[in-house]
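Per your request, structure below.
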């Protein structure tokens, strides 16, 4: 069965989650071709519905981009931020943040390693100003949580002599870059990658 036919079948089976399916397919295409290089007609064809069907769920391409980013941020909030906030110990919290974020990217990668979360970094220029502010606010909130966690570790004397801002963005960069090189068909499982990334990051941030 072709990929398009499989997608058509999947869309029919999950009609209640049609927008989520559109976001997932569109995200993979935008990761591969870029925002400007991906048309709504191509997205509709890949999803297995008409272009009019796309516009039944979303008003336009810029709104679709915002929906994709919101979908990615919702996943990040649910799978990374919420579990981390429940942990009082900063070292355990940092470990959870790194492991869960890495697993979120690698576990939800498509055949080419693409994940909706990765678009949050590359394509914000395509958003309308109001949408860009909302996405950036959610991103800043996540960075602030990481910065706060590192600050707590510093206060406990557990953090190496590093700048907290540089450490926070370097940590995020290492995790997000997974989408550029991780191959879900390769020899490493998502759990193996998450464990290795966590070990490397903690080794560089924490005092022995």
């Amino acid at each position: 069965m072709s990929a398009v036919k499989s997608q058509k079948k999947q869309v029919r089976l999950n009609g209640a989650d049609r927008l989520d399916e559109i976001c997932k397919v569109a995200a993979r295409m935008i990761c591969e071709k870029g925002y400007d290089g991906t048309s709504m007609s191509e997205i509709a064809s890949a999803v297995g519905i008409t272009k009019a069907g796309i516009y039944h769920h979303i008003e336009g391409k810029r709104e679709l981009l915002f929906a994709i980013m919101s979908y990615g941020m919702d996943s990040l909030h649910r799978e990374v931020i919420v579990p981390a906030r429940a942990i009082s110990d900063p070292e355990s919290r940092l470990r959870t943040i790194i492991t869960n974020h890495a697993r979120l990217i690698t576990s939800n990668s498509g055949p080419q390693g693409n994940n909706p979360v990765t678009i949050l970094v590359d394509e914000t220029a395509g958003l309308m100003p109001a949408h860009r502010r909302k996405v950036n606010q959610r991103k800043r909130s996540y960075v602030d949580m990481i910065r706060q966690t590192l600050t707590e570790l510093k206060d406990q004397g557990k953090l190496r002599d590093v700048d907290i801002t540089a450490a926070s963005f370097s940590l995020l960069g290492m995790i997000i870059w997974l989408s550029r090189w991780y191959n879900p068909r390769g020899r490493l499982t998502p759990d193996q990658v998450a464990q290795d990334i966590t070990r490397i990051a903690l080794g560089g941030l924490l005092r022995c």
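Residues 1-16 have pLDDT under 50 and may be disordered.

Regards,
D.
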